[in-house]
Structure formats: structure tokens, C-alpha cells
């Protein structure tokens, strides 16, 4: 087989050479080298493969959808220095548009024995450093949710997450008042309106250490957990995570005045039962996770709904000392760091700093440990000196970008012309350059929008499995609806929030860093549907995606 400066020369057809795409993999990402395609109809092609599993699809009409059909949409992002959302047009030169094949290049195609897929092209995408406001990740602000904080102003900073105590000091030996519960509900309603999610913790005091104010007797802790169950269930959509709380100073599971740590597993079980089954909790000390559940969470148990798979970590003295003020037992620091590193591959991790401790609290170590422990969020209100040092030393922009997940497309294979009722190969390749994967359930859909309406098809992949620092591939066959009228249609990838109240809210959908973002959709390009287009067509075909 011959080679060229651009790739490999494949087979020959008569005296014509057929060029093919050569894919090069590097440790950082996959790069695509596109070569000129001279495909002749006389050349043999390979049948495309399909699986036995179909994805479900939904359809709406033009009157029910605002799906994009033009190319002048914008990509929403945020300035790392100011936090203010910014936009970049699809035609911007700073990598918001994918690199496409030249007008002279023709697409490749495969053919089956009875049906012929539409031809496809491969488009490489270029990464960028643009900050993006995405749900359930990033820097967070501290608020008191039951006291009417200005959550819209926080969202306008480019922040999508807040943390709040719910203080139960007045209710240590009596039921929580209906007025307090109503105030918390009002705060969560305001978060929903503002496009914010909430990290919530119930506590009976605000320390101090070592002479803390009291927590509550065990019987009242159980009653209070039972009381807040309805509140937690009703607000599943805007709760990012509910921290374990309740025990000791600040609800951090130390300095209990009622010996509640003797009953920590029973209290935790009660809280997990009271919470929505889709949500995780976090505990302060890794030794307690190991005492209650043993070894770190394994991949085969991740996202199973078991108690072990719902208990993550928060470190509220990140980088504060060699032990992070007791997070890791003295003399066993590396052992417990390894435990947290292994456990947080599949669990939520976040927290705050509590003490300036240079050089450990400065950028060099911060970036290493954010990555090692898979941080999804950090408090930027405390400790202010530590956060200011990150800003002054120039790493705050990277922290903003890489907390949690950060999805970048690397290449897309798709059709540019097809027939209604036809089908084509669809391959979407991406990197997660963030420090963690999403930790809450997330829908994944391919969307077709145009003059005939809008269709959505589920993709049977869990985005929580898109682990940090890895390359991920969505590959299969996209079947186009017979009922679609001829015209220009946008093809998009959507990752909406799965809860019904937020499913159509673009603020709660996940945006890729280098696609055009429009109304909650990551646009992949345009496909022209025409009865005269290449490929075959089937009568009565629905819109669906058949994953390899």
C-alpha cells in the first residue's frame, strides 16, 4: 500500500486510486488527517453494521420546536477573569467552528446488501480554552438559601452552583418550623428560576472548633431527617448534592456533643433513604467512608444506586496543611489520599480551602490535587487569600475551566446529503479534558431539526462514564424519518437535564467547548434531505439511533 503526505492510498478501482482517512492517536487526543476522496461508483464498499438495540425517539412539529436551522448561532461562554458570559459566533476564528473537508472532497460511503447508506464526511474539531458555564460543576458561591440571596446575579457571574447551610440551631429538641421549610423552598424555587443548582447541608451550629456549639440528640436528628424528606424529594431537580451534615461542628462529622458519630452509619442510611435516589451525598472524612463501606467504589458498582455508590467526599480544608487539617490521618497521608483518588473516579468530590498554606496552597500543588481527586466544585468565597493567590499566580482560569467535566469534540463523521427515510453512519468523538465526569444522571440525544419539525432519539450511553482525561466515542447508524419533508436540517447532540421540570431549560443542559451552542443543542452541522440524494430510503421509518 502506498502512502502520501496526507494519508494512505487504499485500493485501486481500474486505474483510479481511492484515498481513505487515516486516524492518528496521540496520548492527548485523536487527530484526523483527511485526504482527497476519489470514490467511484464501480468500487466495492463494505456493509455497515448495526446492533439489535434501538433507541427511542420523539417528534415535534415546527410549531412545537425552536430547533436551529441556520448557521449564525452563537456559542455561550464565560470570561475566566470576570466570570461574565460571553459569546463567540460560529464563524469566529478562535476554534468555535469545526474544520471541514474542502469543497472538492467527496464523502466516503458503505453499502449493505439490501439498503445503501448515505455518503459521509469526517470533520475534525479544534480544541480551545474558552470558558463555558455548565451545570453541576465549577466554582461555587456561599449563600443562605432561606434568606433570599440574589441568585440571578450569581448566575450572571458565570457561576451555576451555590452552597448553603440550612441552620437548625433553634430546633435541636423540637420539630423544624413550617416557616423555615417554606423559606428553604422559596430559595430553591429562586435557584430554579435563576438557572442555579444547590449543594445543601443541614447543621445545628457553626462550630467553632474545638469548643463547638451543640448538635442535636439522636432521636431529633432522625425526626428532622424525616421532616426534610419531602422537601428534598420535591426539589430533586435543583439539588446537585446533599451533604451528610447534621453531625458535629458545621455538620462536618467531628466534635459532636451528643456522640452522634457512634451512630454515623444509621444517620447516613436515614439521610440516603430520605433523599431522591438519583442524588449523592458527601462526607467529610475518608476514614469514615472506609469504616462504613470498605474498599473504594469499583467500576462495576458505580451508578448502581447502592449506598456505597451514593457517598462521595468533601474536603473543607483543601491544601490547608500536610493533612488538610485532619482530613488524612497523620502518618497515613498517602494511604488515605490514594483511597480518595480511587473512590472519586465514580463519585462526587468538592469542598473549600480554609487556611493559606504556601507553597502547598498555591497553584502548582492545587492543580495536581484538583486533578488527582477529581474535583467538580470549589468554594471561591473561602478562603479568600488562597483564591486570590490562584488569581494572582495565573491558574484560576484553568481551575474554572477544568473543575468537573469539560467536553471537547475531536471529530464527527456524518452525512451532508440524505434521503428522507434514509440512514447514515454517525460517529462522534470527544475528549473529557476536565478533572471529573458528571456525577448526576444525564440524558444523551441526537436531534434533527428543520422545516418538517424536530425529532429526538436517545443514545444508550451514560455520560457519567465519560471519565476525565480520556477519549470517548459514540458510533452507530442514524435512521432518518420518512415523514421529514425536503429541506435543510440541523443535526445536533443534546445533553439535557433528565428531570421533567428542567429538560427544556438550556441553562441546565451541557455545552461542549467547541461546538456552536443554540437553545440547549450542540450543533454538529447541516444535512440536506432530498428524495434525489444518494443512498436508499425506507417507507414508514422513524428517527432513531442504532448504537454499535
Structural description of this entry:
By secondary structure, this protein is of the alpha/beta class. It is 18% helix and 25% strand. It has helices spanning 151-156, 178-194, 218-234, 264-274, 286-293, 333-343, 363-372, 384-393, 396-402; strands at 9-13, 16-19, 22-25, 30-33, 57-60, 74-78, 85-89, 121-124, 138-143, 161-167, 197-203, 239-242, 281-283, 311-315, 349-351, 377-379, 407-414, 417-418, 423-432, 445-450, 453-458, 471-479, 487-494, 516-518, 521-529, 544-547. An eight-stranded parallel beta sheet has the order 12-11-10-9-16-15-14-13. Strands 5, 18, 20, 21, 23, 24 and 25 form a seven-stranded mixed beta sheet that branches. α7 packs parallel to α9 (396-402). The longest helix has 17 residues, at 178-194. The protein starts with 8 loop residues before the first strand and ends with a strand. The model is unreliable at 1-113 (pLDDT under 50).
Question: How does the SSE layout of this entry go?
Answer:
Layout: E1 9-13, E2 16-19, E3 22-25, E4 30-33, E5 57-60, E6 74-78, E7 85-89, E8 121-124, E9 138-143, H1 151-156, E10 161-167, H2 178-194, E11 197-203, H3 218-234, E12 239-242, H4 264-274, E13 281-283, H5 286-293, E14 311-315, H6 333-343, E15 349-351, H7 363-372, E16 377-379, H8 384-393, H9 396-402, E17 407-414, E18 417-418, E19 423-432, E20 445-450, E21 453-458, E22 471-479, E23 487-494, E24 516-518, E25 521-529, E26 544-547
Parallel strand pairs: 9-10, 9-16, 10-11, 11-12, 13-14, 14-15, 15-16, 18-25
Antiparallel strand pairs: 1-2, 3-4, 5-21, 6-7, 8-17, 17-19, 19-22, 20-21, 20-23, 22-26, 23-25, 24-25
